Amino acid sequence: MEGKGFNELGLDESILKAIDVMGFEEPSKIQAEVIPVLLEGHDVIGQAQTGTGKTLAFGAPVLSRVGRSQGKIGSIILTPTRELAIQVNDELNRIAKFTKVKLIPVYGGQPIERQISALRRGIDVVVGTPGRVLDLIRRKALDLSSIQFLVLDEADEMLNMGFIDDIEEIIKNSSEDRQTMLFSATMPAEIKKLAKRYMKPEAKHIAILKSTMTVAAVGQYYYEVKSRERFESLCRILDVDEPSSAIIFCKTKRGVDELVEGLKSRGYGAEGMHGDMNQNQRINTLKRFKEGSVEFLIATDVAARGIDVENVTHVINYDLPQDVESYVHRIGRTGRANKEGVAYTLVTAREYTSLKHIEKATKSKIKRREIPTVDEIFTSKYKNIVSRIKETLQEDSYKRFISLATELDEEFNLVEVAAALMDMLYSKEVSYDYTENAIGSATENKRLFLTVGRMDKINPKMLLEFFNENARINKEDVGDIDILEKFSFVNVTEAAAEAIIKHCSGKRFAGRKVNIEISTKSRG
C-alpha cells in the first residue's frame, strides 16, 4: 500500500475533501492498510502505537459508510478517558466536515441530562467512555441494537483501567450484525480473548511494527507557542540561532506557501517544496538549497521524501507531523555524517500531549526551550557583527575607506560612527519588527475546560468580557481559546486560572450556568 494516496483507498468524496482541508497529503502506514480492509466490511484488529494516525484510520471509513440517523445510532466508539473521547470526537468532526453526520462525545463529569437530550434529538456517531456509555444504556437513553460499527480505541488502556466487564456488557447490547474494530498498542491475553469472543472468525489482524527510531545524533527541543504568535516565534528562533541551512516542515501545501511568503517579505532566504509543484520546480529549488543560495527550505512531508542534503544544521517542525514515523523521518534530515544536528518543534498547549507520545515512542528527551527575547536576539547579532568586524580587520580590503573615515572623524565621534554602522548591520539582519522584549507564551501554563461551546453561540470576545467582568482578568493573561461544539478550552496564566475558577465557575454565561475546571489532559 505504500505510496498510495487517500483518493486510491475507496473513501467517499466528502471525506476526501475534508482530509484535503486537514492538510494530509498521504496516508500513514496504519491508514493505508486498515482503510481498504474496513471499507470491504471486515472486522479488524489494528495493532499500532499511539501517534500513528489511528483515529483517521477508523474514522474515515466509518464516516464514509455510516447511515444517516433515523432515530438510531450508527456507530459507537469507546475510549478509555474523557480527554481521548474529546480528542477523537474533535478529529471526527473535522473528517465529517462536508457530511451531515451528527456526533456527540459522552463521558462522566458532565450533566447526563444534556447528553440524553442530545441523543433524543438524533445522533449518528457516539464517542464515549465505557462507564458513561453503559450508564446511558441502562437508562434506555442509548440504543445500540442497530449500530453498524463498534470501535474499541486503545483497548489495552481500557483493560488496564478495569473496563473489561463494562466493555463486554456494551458489546452484548450491540447489534450482532455490526462491524467491529479493535485498536491497541499491545495485545495482552485478555484483549485476544475479547477479540476471539466478539469479533468474526475471519477478522483481519493488521500490525504496524514499530520503526527503528534513530535520533541519537540529533538534539531535540520544543517551544510552546500561541497559535497567533507561531510565525513571530519562528522568526525569533531563526534570528538567535542563525542556521546556515535549515528545513522547516509544514503540515499543508497552503501552509508552505504562506510561510514562504511571510519569510521572504521579511528578508529571509526561503523557498518552498510541496506536491503541487512540478518536478523541474522541485529540482531547481533543491539545487539552490544544496548550493546555499537558499537558507531555508520549507516543505511538506511528501515533498521532502528522498531529499539527501549534507550539512543541514537545523530541522524545524513549524507544524507537528501526523504521526511519530514522520517526525523521525523529518529530524533525520539533520545530524548526518557524524555531525550533531538540532531539531526544534513548535507546539501549542493543546498539542503538548502529542509531543509526549513522540518522546515516548522515540525513547528520547525533547527538552523545553523558552522563545528568545529581543535582548537575546540583540546579543546574538552583536556577537556575530563583532566577529565579522574582527575578520575584516585581519584583511587589507577595509583600508580603502580610511580616508573617508578620517573625514568623518573631523565631524563625528568615531565610536558613535562605529555604533551607527553596527546599527545599520543589525537592522538588515533582523527583519521582523519585534514590539516586545519577551513573547507572551512563556506565561501560558494552565488550560481551563469550560462547559460552553459553539452551540451556545459564544465567541472569544464574549469569553474575555465574561472573565473581565467577574474575575477582573485582562486579555494579556489569556492565550489560545479553542471553542468546540459543546465545550471550550482556554489557556491562561496560573494566577488567572485561580481567579477564573473562583469567580466565574457556576456563574451564568450565554444563558446558562457554566462549570470551569483545570483540564485533566496530561501535561507530561
From TrEMBL:
Reactions catalysed according to its record: ATP + H2O = ADP + phosphate + H(+)
GO biological-process terms attached to the record: response to cold
Endpoints of the signal sequence: none
Name of the top EC class for this enzyme: hydrolase
Keyword GTP-binding: no
GO MF: ATP binding; ATP hydrolysis activity; RNA helicase activity; RNA strand annealing activity
The keyword DNA-binding is assigned to this record: no
Gene3D superfamilies on file: 3.30.70.330, P-loop containing nucleotide triphosphate hydrolases
Entry protein name: ATP-dependent RNA helicase CshA
Keywords associated with the record: ATP-binding, Cytoplasm, Helicase, Hydrolase, Nucleotide-binding, Stress response
DEAD-box RNA helicase Q domain span: 4-32
Ranges for domain Helicase ATP-binding: 35-205
Transmembrane segments: none
UniProt similarity note: Belongs to the DEAD box helicase family.
Listed EC numbers: 3.6.4.13
Motif mapping: Q motif: 4-32
Sequence ranges assigned to domain Helicase C-terminal in this UniProt record: 217-379
Short name of any one Pfam family annotated for the protein: DeaD_dimer
InterPro entries, sorted: DbpA/CsdA_RNA-bd_dom, DEAD/DEAH_box_helicase_dom, DEAD/DEAH_RhlB, DEAD_box_RNA_helicases, DeaD_dimer, Helicase_ATP-bd, Helicase_C-like, Nucleotide-bd_a/b_plait_sf
Species name: Clostridium magnum DSM 2767
SMART domains from the UniProt entry: DEXDc, HELICc
Any one GO CC term of the record: ribosome
Superkingdom to which the source organism belongs: Bacteria
